[in-house]
């Protein structure tokens, strides 16, 4: 930016705020318990990372 401040289009920002959906409150989120140790050990046993497990495998360690 060569030391110059970038000019920001505030009108565009305010338009975007008007169309933005309301935030989701934490109280509205479903209560989920996740067995972190279990999923970590399971992934380690398989020799893969947690993120590479399938959704079905991950669901084995979730309680709603």
How would you explain this protein's 3D organization?
- With 64 residues, the protein is mainly alpha-helical.
- It has a domain at 25-63.
- It is built from three helices and two strands; from the N terminus they run αβααβ.
- It has a two-stranded antiparallel ribbon with strand order 1-2.
- The longest helix has 11 residues, at 36-46.
- It is elongated.
- The chain starts with 9 loop residues before the first helix and ends with a strand.
Structural class estimated from helices and strands: mainly alpha
Give the strand line-up of the largest sheet: 1-2
Element order: H for helix, E for strand: HEHHE
Terminal residue distance: 49 Å
Describe the main β-sheet briefly: 2 strands, antiparallel
Shape: elongated
- The counted number of beta strands is 2
* Low-confidence region ranges: none
Taken as a percent bin, the fraction of beta residues is 5-15%
Oligomer category: single chain
List the total number of helices: 3
Helix content: 40-55%
What is the mean pLDDT? 89
Task: Determine Rg (CA atoms, Å).
Answer: 21 Å
């Amino acid at each position: 930016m060569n030391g110059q401040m970038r000019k920001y289009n505030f009108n565009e920002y305010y338009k975007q705020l008007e169309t933005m959906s309301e935030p989701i409150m934490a109280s509205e989120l479903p209560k989920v318990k996740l067995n972190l140790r279990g999923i970590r050990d399971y992934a380690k046993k398989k020799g893969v990372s947690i993120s590479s497990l399938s959704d079905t495998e991950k669901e084995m360690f979730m309680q709603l």
